[in-house]
Amino acid sequence: MSKIFDPQVVNPIITKSINDLITAKGGLVPTKDLEIATQPIEEYEGRMRVNATEIFDVPVYIANTNFYLNKGDMQGHRARGAMVVYVDMEVADKVFKAAGLQVPYDEDDGSMEDLCGQLCQIFTQSIKDGLEAAGFISLEASTPFTFKNTISEGVEFSKDQQEKQRLSCYYLKHKALVVDWTLAPIPRK
Q1: Which of 31, 161, 174, 177 has its CA 20 to 30 A from that of 69?
Q2: Which residue from 4, 171, 2 is spatially nearest to 93, judged by alpha carbons?
Q3: 166-180, pLDDT tens digit by residue?
């Protein structure tokens, strides 16, 4: 069995980032408690499968980033972890506005995908900062990649990982935001 980085460290970092950004600052109140679940990683040709239809029954915007121990690992595609952010298209404009992002035109998929990437970047920075504050090394992270509904080629992840964490957030009576993450153990400073 693989050893995942302690969810009791990372889940509160992500949860706090979501609550501070979207609820406290943005005023978007959850309509249901946040759900946290452990999910098996489905692998295909050495990459983690990402298909939103398994989570949502509506179209979604997706952004993903990868975590690496250093720039050399990033260049060599040796991911230590991955994060995937899903946002329900029906309420995406409200989620992005609550997060303080400027929504130019919510019918333009390219612009909305970019905003999903910006939201992913905010969560990525929260994870990096939170882990570093907890005494772990500073991770390198890729620039977020954005998609709609699926990432057909999958995403890089640490090959020894078999599970991921899923945080599901409900706003406006919708499962509006989901964050999946997996991370292999990382060294302390």
Answers
A1: 177
A2: 171
A3: 999 999 999 999 999
